[in-house]
Amino acid sequence: MGLIVYYSSRSENTHRFVAKLGLRAARILPGGADAFHIREPFVLVVPTYSGNGGKGAVPKQVIRFLNDAENRGHIRGVIAAGNSNFGETYGLAGDVISQKCQVPYLYRFELLGTEDDVANVKYGMERFWTREQL
User: Fold this and answer.
1) Which N-terminal stretch is annotated as signal sequence (predicted)?
2) C-alpha pair distances (Å), 20 with each of 15, 84, 86
3) Tens digits of per-residue pLDDT, 113-124?
4) Which end of the chain, N or C, is less surrounded by CB atoms within 10 Å?
């Protein structure tokens, strides 16, 4: 199965969600996004920041990470966390990354996700990576 690359803010919600998946993962650290290189296919898990009408939805660390052509060349899909209280911008970081990197937006979950979200992502990742190998 492929790699999960993720960024988690101080709330650690995304980190807790990824830990529950029990899958191979690498974390983009706040100060290390510029020097962090991934050399294999991955799915990105990213929180959505509330931002001004959607501006600033993608964390700056993730933008820096994806601005590296090598990293961007290995992204295969995106999963976004969000807060439904944000209305139309719920999970917006996933939409933005999906469009800019031309990869599928695979799933979105609220805050740190439910047990159903964990099960859905685990199952979805198995199917996704199996299909990706074909």
Assistant:
1) none
2) 9, 21, 25
3) 999 999 999 999
4) C
